[in-house]
Amino acid sequence: MFNLIFGFVIVWLILSSAILIHLKIKERRDIQQQIRQVAQTFNTTPELVLFLDYTSPDFKEIDELLLSETPVSFVVVFRAPIWLIEVKKKKWVTHHVLSNTNIISLLDSGGTGTKALRIQKEKFQVFHEIPALIRLTALQK
Amino acid sequence: MASWIEYILGLVIAVSFFIPFYMKLQSIQGFRVEIYAYKVLPAAFLTWAAAAILIMECWLFICFATGLAEGWKHILGITLLTCFTWLTWNKKRKTGIEACACFGNIGFLNRFPIYRNIMLIILLLIDFFLSGQVIQDIYLMVLSLALVMAMSFSIDIMQHIGRRNEA
């Protein structure tokens, strides 16, 4: 009886980790697709990409940081009404603003899709705490 | 009967420490930035803090799954959860944002971190007062560890599928 339960749990563990690895690989592939699209629109692969949704709860704080003079420069893929994108294009002078319409969107935690990517060659890292990332990166420059 | 309830409670608590552990393990850099967002630690300490929290969560996962370290794990678990709750509350007071990414992409566990932590602390207290027998059997310990991991991965998979249906 114990052996049977043991076997069942091990099979369950192997199956669930295989499915999870598959899902994670797919997720990474989707993000790589996004990076490629950004690179195409921008002509080169940027180091920092910010996917920003204007309905995101920390939008106000991020906006203030993007307005201020930081040594950190983002390519901002901005999801917002067209007029707001036009306004912010003029105001976020140290950053490059793109409309999100050219880039496939992916739903992330929280659903708003606000996230930052730090890209190094073929690898990338995902960040969800954008204000902290900007402050920390500025500190290290 | 009581020992079954205790066993299952231990597994549930172990899952709730294992999920945040392996979520953070996938993105250490992201976790460092997350700690920085709480504005309580200078940049130089972030890597140390990240490592310490990961080690504690891993230890708690192992102890609650196997029934080892009775008492000590409850003290550490409750202390850790109280710190997290205080930090979240503090951040909410300053910025108005409560949601965290502590459980990675598992959205339903991230929405109300303060209530979630208080619930967990209550579970830990119940487990502490129930605690009596310790599992002696090494096979049962391995089985419990595997069971906790399988359950955690399954929750993660269900969350992925749920998100895809939303999109």
Q: What would you say this structure looks like, in words?
A:
- The complex is a heterodimer of chains A (141) and B (167).
- With 141 residues, chain A is an alpha/beta fold.
- Chain A has a single domain (24-140), classed as Glutaredoxin (3-Layer(aba) Sandwich).
- Chain A contains four helices and five strands.
- Chain A has helices spanning 2-42, 59-67, 82-91, 130-140, and strands at 48-53, 75-79, 96-99, 115-120, 123-127.
- Chain A has a five-stranded mixed sheet, sandwiched between helices.
- The longest helix of chain A is centred in the first third of the chain and has 41 residues, at 2-42.
- The mean pLDDT of chain A is 86.
- Chain B has 167 residues and is mostly helical.
- Chain B has one domain (2-166).
- Chain B has helices at 2-26, 28-37, 46-66, 72-95, 107-110, 113-130, 138-166.
- Chain A binds chain B through residues 2, 5-6, 9-10, 12-13, 16-17, 19-20, 23-24, 57-58, 61, 106-111, 118, 125-129, 131-133, 135-136, 139-140, and chain B through 26-27, 29-30, 32-34, 36-37, 43, 95-97, 99, 101, 104-107, 110, 139, 143, 146-147, 149-150, 153-154, 156-157, 160, 163, 166-167.
Feature tags:
heterodimer; A: alpha/beta; Glutaredoxin; five-stranded mixed β-sheet; 4 helices; 5 strands; B: 167 residues; mainly alpha
Number of domains of chain A: 1
Describe the largest sheet of chain B.
Answer: none
Q: What is the SS-derived class of chain A?
A: alpha/beta
- Kindly, what is the distance between the CA atoms of the first and last residues of chain B, rounded to a whole number of angstroms? 44 Å
β content of chain B, as a range? under 5%
Q: Quaternary status of these chains?
A: heterodimer
Compact summary:
The complex is a heterodimer of chains A (141) and B (167). Chain A has 141 residues and is of the alpha/beta class.
Layout of helices and strands, plus pairs?
The complex is a heterodimer of chains A (141) and B (167).
Chain A: H1 2-42, E1 48-53, H2 59-67, E2 75-79, H3 82-91, E3 96-99, E4 115-120, E5 123-127, H4 130-140
Parallel strand pairs in A: 1-2, 2-3
Antiparallel strand pairs in A: 1-4, 4-5
Chain B: H1 2-26, H2 28-37, H3 46-66, H4 72-95, H5 107-110, H6 113-130, H7 138-166
